[in-house]
User: Fold this.
Amino acid sequence: MTSKKERTFVAVKPDGIQRNLIGEIIKRFENRGLKLVGIKMVVPTDEQIEAHYLVNPDFKTIVGAKTIESYKKKGENPPTEDPETQGQFVLDTLKKYMASGPIVAMCWEGVHAVEIVRKVVGGTEPRSSDVGTIRGDYVIDSYQLADTDQRAVRNLIHASGDKGEAEKEIELWFSKSELIDYRLVQEQMLYDVNLDGILE
Ligand code: ATP
Ligand code: MG
Assistant:
């Protein structure tokens, strides 16, 4: 069933906050028609960051393989051929990055929310994120520079990768009472079948 109440987890990372992009990022999702149902500012702990990324137990091998593939696609040599080693490096650097300051944790709701938010956010590596996406419009980092400097890729924002990840991440960051069910007037325009409440 297609749900109009699909939810996804989004975080403005510490660099997004330092670059005064909270409002701009929220605006992108609001403009698209999504509904904000939870929001708070937190300074994450190392434990929270590890739990967050390891909601997918294969995080290290997936992120490692994705990085290696991206190097090869550009005709460049990856720092290692072993996805697990690359993934462990990413997880370690992510702890430093994500705990360096406050983040803004958010839950957004709407039809196909997970998929649409990922599109609005853009690809992981800002060097190759599409122009028109948040990462493609506001930041310029690359795997190569991040790996040379032994740090995480700074890409402003996190968004759940799929519906399963979204459910687990929302549960990790928000209690039930922090997520609010309410109606938005614009939802009639987005979802109402007959649009029969407009003309007088
Ligand atoms: P996110 O999960 O943050 O929304 P994503 O799903 O696009 O991003 P993942 O593959 O899940 O990307 O990687 C998580 C995060 O780890 C990235 O957003 C980035 O900050 C960092 N990262 C990924 N690969 C590397 C790498 N090779 N070197 C440094 N940092 C990396
Ligand atoms: Mg991810």
User: Anything to note?
Assistant: Residues 8-180 form a domain with the Alpha-Beta Plaits fold (CATH 3.30.70.141). The chain has one domain: 8-180. The mean pLDDT is 96.
